[in-house]
Amino acid sequence: MTLSTMLSTMAAGMLRTCGIFLLTLVGSLPLGMIVALLRKSRFSVVRLLIRAYISVIRGTPLMLQLLVWYFGPYYLFGWSIRGWRFPALIIGFVLNYAAYFAEIYRGGIESIPVGQYEACEVLGYSKSQTFMRIILPQVIKRIMPSVTNEVITLVKDTSLAFTLAYQEVFSLAKQISASQTSFAPFVIAGVFYFIANYAVAFAMERIEKALDYYR
Predict the structure, then answer these.
(1) Distance between CA atoms of residues 67 and 161, nearest Å
(2) Which of 13, 42, 72, 110 is the most buried (most CB within 10 A)?
(3) What b/e sequence results for 48-66 when a residue is b if at least 16 CB atoms lie within 10 Å of its CB, and e otherwise?
């Protein structure tokens, strides 16, 4: 198999990897903020449930979580899992990364001095206005380095999709390498991940610079 043939064969896997990455970001970033706010809820039951969720997610491997989401409906309820592979994959990734983003958000929110909340209250701002107009812009700026690290990790973690036999770029690289007795597919996959991570790092750096309105 020539290099061009390998590239064309793995192109579909690269697109699937990008799909996992984008859908995970679209789902986990806003969900993480919701989880972070619920983590600070005044209701103790809600706080305990959210803490338990974050603890379980952070305390178990992502690979295991993907297997649970895929096989769980069958073993627990006897449901057919035909066509469930990709939805289970996205649910597993979104819930996993939402927990990590939630802790990043929480750290950013708690880093804001209490005096800013008090000043907004004196100025007559509602809680929602205070959060959206004053607190959130500062939080976003402060957490960008941590979010960047998580997003870069996500690019590499997409390779765990092979756990559910989903043919993303890493799975295809393994299959082609085994059938052709060649190391080239792994090199191609490695270059793809490197370029993807470089693009993410570049984009996040540009965002950080755009937010650099004070030091």
Answers:
(1) 10
(2) 13
(3) eebeebbeebeeeebeebb
Tokens 């649970």 sit at which residue? Answer: 68
**All domains of the chain, ordered by start, with CATH?**
3-210 (1.10.3720.10)
Per-residue pLDDT for 214 more than 60?
Answer: no
Which residue has 């690289």 as its token pair?
Answer: 173
Q: 141-169 pLDDT, tens per residue?
A: 889 989 999 999 999 999 999 888 888 88
Give the per-residue pLDDT at 35.
Answer: 95
Query: Is 0.70 topped by the overall pTM?
Result: yes
Residue given tokens 């799909």 in the structure block: 19
Q: Which pLDDT score is estimated for 133?
A: 85
Q: Spell out the alpha helix ranges (H) of the chain.
A: 3-39, 44-59, 62-77, 85-110, 114-122, 127-129, 136-157, 169-180, 184-210
